[in-house]
Amino acid sequence: VTDLPRDPDSSGDDSGSRPGSADESTPRWVKVFGIIGLVLVLLMLIALLTGHGPGRHMPHGHRLDGNTPAAAHTP
Amino acid sequence: MKNMQPRLRKFALTAHITSSVGWLGAVAVSLALAVACLSTRDPELVRAAYLTMKLIGWVVLVPLSLASLLTGLVQSLGTTWGLFRHYWVLVKLLMNLFASLVLLMYMQTLGYLADAAADTTLSSAGLLELRNPSPVLHSAGALLLLIVAVTLSVYKPRGLTRYGRRKQQEQIPVSPQ
What we know:
The complex is a heterodimer. Chain A is mostly helical. Chain A has helices spanning 8-11, 28-49. Chain A is rod-shaped, with a radius of gyration of 25 Å. By secondary structure, chain B is mostly helical. Helices cover 79% and strands 0% of the residues of chain B.
């Protein structure tokens, strides 16, 4: 959220409303953002449900308890 | 919520811009570290990068994300913009919540990677094995999201929500008969 607009021609007035903004239909940009947002949330849920969530990005062989296989350690 | 006085509003706005743009800058630094970590063949750089990313995450990213969310709420609720009246304000709120949630969850992953990298008994090969594209993907995604948020703040695209239209109708004075 940025400062309130002062120039009614560019971005409305201090009431926070815009000329012609009373249009009943949902703007196209909101629909596009909504679709992208839904896809992102779905991807996140799928990642979590398939075990790709936090702590699962470790390379093979590294366990979440901080222990690593002996082969990766120096002798 | 009652509208803030102009001086207080300017102060809140300054705090919101500072925290939001600071968050964006810190994400850019994290992306640079993540790319360096992924592309290097130097095991010590991998260790340093993960430890630094974890530090930046907890000391800079998380506090700034929460500050951005909090100051954004104050800024919207304390002005006539409102929180649910304009689509661009609402979209920014949802983006901020999403980014903060993913960041908090991802800090666990970063913690595991940093803890593994901090293990001084880990061999060079083991350190290089820790290289992972995940921090690059998460940092790049966050950077893109925050750039979109800044763009929304500047352009303020038109569009009133149903609630916003109702509020607007309520504020139109009824002309005397």
